């Protein structure tokens, strides 16, 4: 924007002057500029912009959560200049700012919403800050080891007593500030407590001394808890739930617990669920699989106007889904988000004698589509959803009716044409990839350069091509192999062997990837375990056509013994000008000079993560890439290199670029090293959760759960 203003004379000579636009248009343009730039830079360019940059519409809400260039001095100056005008401040994930930065938030006397998740805040600093924020109604904080609620002043507790929305991320067993929040209507809890300390001692789920105060849930409307793996997290969340089991809030309309693995139901939780069935009507529901499997709970729960359901990893059958949840097609027009990830029998009438690989019952999916016609987010991943040969009843054909979809996650085996999967033999790992009518030299990958020829080969007649053509406004797409598991699971050593792909998925490859290029508004794409990728030619189509693509995650494409799509990937990257996050997981990946030269064309890239068993890297190429791509603030590489090579490169990057990039986070480490989990625990949660760890993110949480 400054460059535009500085070239004002040139614009005038061409008959166009930016300053002649109306204030409304200029305010709209300025709304896309980070607030720190507006206040600290742009407003100093001319008198008109000096006034507009301080307009209430631009200073009311300040978002710093992904402003990776902001530092302590900029925050201090920003708060000094417009602190009194800020009503909503989001500093989530600003892990690089020193804890003393929080002291400047006290200038924002009129704050109503404050998000400090991922920031370093001690209990004393929190007390001092909250004592001055009398209008605060929404708060998000982390509770770290050493937090002491007894250090909170009476003024601080008075502020907390007026807070109605609280998001709390726990890294230690604690109630945090929950007992002080006596007016809570929305409570979001993220449990990230590790089972072992850094010294190797087992941790207990018992709360610290002095934390016997109980939470106040009488006004609660939304309860959400997300647990990281580990038994300590389960122990602590039970303490939070104990109060709910005694007396269920009358106004509760959203109850959500996301727990990986086994989280057994107890007498207290059963009492809670029975009370909910008697006393409340829900709009959103998510429960651990053990609480739903084999129980008649869903038959007794009552729903009002549900907007979110998650039955992830449950053994819920399609018959129960239709009868007990969808209620025969009634009252489900309000549902906008549905997560059936890992729900292997959800599209079958019953699960007792059914194999996971059996064909789905298309009538169940059709009932789902008709009843939930306003779905915007749908997750069907981590299951075998095989369509039968019945004409017009393919899963892709039925899903094409959901015209409002914005995000979609599907298993690879669900998108293949039935005839193709039967006729085409499985790809054999020992074979050299072949193309039609052309010999291929080993070691040199070729792919169709003519996009029209590529399209006419197969894809225009496929059901997946038709599905992509019907979902023109889709922004997020995940195509993930039903047996895929990342080499980097949470809190465990790296996985050394992966399961083979589903037989039905063997025919899914380049042509299906090319079909995705029809999604003009695509912003996030995940492709994992597509076995029939021969050249990766479809990636080039996506790079050319999907110009809004910001997040790209590719994992285990084609043969596992070599990276067959490298040439196409490098061509693709040259066109991805808006790409910000790139995650690659592929054995034997060579991160060399050619790859990083191609990646340097991604001028907007901010975060890079490469996970590769037996993969190699070229240190000089990495350093050159970091020097050329000035926006990159995260570089995570887990390869097959030695510990010495990894440490030397990591130190070189930090030493060379940390001063200019305050948010820089670099982790370069051998993938199969025994200390990998210790290294992972130091990664900022924002990066770990959003890119470093692989997972399906479609309908993972209710939409707009937090601002």
UniProtKB/TrEMBL annotation:
Stored PROSITE patterns: FBOX
GO CC annotation: SCF ubiquitin ligase complex
Matches recorded under InterPro entries: F-box-like_dom_sf, F-box_dom, FBXL18_F-box, FBXL18_LRR, LRR_dom_sf
Record Pfam families: F-box-like, LRR_FBXL18
Domain F-box: start-end pairs: 15-62
GO BP term, pick one: SCF-dependent proteasomal ubiquitin-dependent protein catabolic process
CDD domains: F-box_FBXL18
Matches recorded under PANTHER family: F-BOX AND LEUCINE-RICH REPEAT PROTEIN 18 (PTHR16134:SF19), F-BOX/TPR REPEAT PROTEIN POF3 (PTHR16134)
The name this protein goes by in its record: FXL18 protein
Organism: Edolisoma coerulescens
Gene name, Swiss-Prot/TrEMBL: Fbxl18
């Amino acid at each position: 924007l400054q460059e535009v203003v500085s070239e004002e004379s040139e614009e005038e000579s061409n008959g166009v002057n930016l300053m002649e636009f109306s204030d409304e248009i200029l305010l709209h343009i300025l709304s896309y500029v980070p607030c720190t730039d507006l206040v600290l830079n742009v407003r100093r360019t001319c008198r008109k912009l000096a006034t507009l940059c301080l307009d209430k519409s631009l200073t009311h809400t300040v978002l710093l959560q992904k402003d990776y260039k902001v530092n302590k001095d900029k925050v201090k100056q920003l708060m000094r200049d417009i602190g009194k005008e800020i009503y909503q401040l989001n500093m989530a994930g600003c892990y690089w700012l020193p804890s003393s930065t929080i002291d400047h938030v006290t200038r924002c006397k009129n704050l109503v919403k404050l998000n400090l998740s991922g920031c370093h805040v001690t209990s004393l600093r929190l007390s001092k800050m909250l004592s001055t924020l009398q209008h605060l109604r929404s708060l998000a904080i982390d509770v770290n080891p050493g937090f002491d609620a007894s250090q909170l002043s009476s003024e601080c507790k008075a502020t907390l007593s007026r807070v109605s929305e609280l998001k709390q991320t726990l890294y230690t067993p604690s109630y945090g500030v929950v007992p002080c929040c006596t007016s809570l209507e929305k409570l979001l809890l993220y449990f990230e407590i590790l089972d072992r300390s850094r010294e190797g001692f087992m941790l207990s789920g018992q709360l610290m001394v002095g934390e016997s105060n109980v939470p106040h849930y009488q006004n609660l409307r939304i309860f959400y808890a997300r647990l990281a793996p580990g038994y300590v997290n389960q122990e602590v969340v039970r303490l939070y739930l104990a109060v709910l089991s005694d007396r269920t809030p009358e106004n509760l309309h959203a109850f959500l617990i996301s727990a990986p693995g086994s989280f057994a139901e107890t007498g207290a939780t059963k009492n809670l669920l029975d009370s909910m069935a008697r006393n409340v009507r829900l709009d959103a529901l998510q429960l651990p699989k053990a609480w739903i499997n084999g129980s008649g709970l869903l038959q007794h729960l009552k729903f009002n106007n549900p907007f979110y359901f998650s039955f992830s990893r449950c053994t819920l059958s399609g018959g129960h889904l239709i009868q007990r949840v969808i209620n025969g097609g009634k009252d489900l027009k309000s549902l906008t988000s549905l997560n059936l990830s890992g729900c292997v029998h959800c599209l079958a009438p019953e699960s007792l004698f059914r194999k996971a690989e059996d064909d789905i019952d298309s009538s169940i999916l059709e009932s789902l589509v008709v009843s939930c016609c306003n779905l915007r987010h749908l997750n069907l991943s981590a299951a075998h959803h095989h369509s039968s040969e019945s004409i017009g009843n393919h899963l892709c054909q039925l899903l094409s009716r959901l015209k409002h979809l914005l995000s979609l996650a599907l298993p690879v085996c669900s998108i293949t044409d039935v005839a193709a999967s039967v006729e085409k033999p499985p790809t054999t790992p020992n074979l050299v990839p072949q193309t039609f009518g052309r010999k291929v030299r080993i070691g040199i990958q070729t792919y169709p350069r003519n996009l029209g020829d590529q399209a006419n080969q197969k894809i225009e007649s496929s059901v997946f091509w038709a599905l992509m053509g019907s979902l023109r406004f889709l922004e997020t797409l995940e195509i993930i192999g039903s047996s895929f598991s990342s080499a980097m699971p949470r809190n465990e050593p790296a996985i050394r062997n992966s399961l083979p792909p589903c037989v039905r998925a063997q025919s899914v490859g380049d042509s299906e990837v090319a079909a995705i290029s029809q999604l003009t508004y695509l912003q996030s794409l995940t492709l994992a375990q597509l076995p029939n990728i021969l050249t990766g030619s479809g990636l080039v189509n996506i790079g050319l056509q999907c110009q809004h693509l910001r997040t790209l995650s590719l994992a285990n494409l084609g043969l596992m013994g070599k990276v067959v799509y490298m040439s196409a990937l490098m061509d693709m990257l040259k066109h991805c000008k808006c790409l910000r996050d790139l995650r690659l997981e592929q054995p034997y990946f060579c991160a060399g000079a050619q790859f990083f030269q191609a990646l340097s064309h991604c001028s907007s890239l901010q975060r890079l993560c490469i996970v590769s068993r037996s993969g190699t890297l070229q240190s000089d190429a990495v350093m050159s890439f970091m020097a050329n791509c000035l926006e990159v603030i995260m570089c995570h590489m887990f390869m097959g290199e030695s510990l010495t090579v990894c440490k030397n490169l990591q130190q070189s990057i930090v030493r060379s670029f940390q001063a200019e990039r305050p948010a820089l986070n670099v982790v370069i480490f051998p993938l199969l090293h025994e200390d990998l989990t210790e290294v992972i625990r130091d990664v900022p949660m924002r990066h770990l959760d959003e890119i470093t760890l692989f997972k399906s993110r479609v309908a993972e949480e209710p939409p707009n759960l937090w601002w």
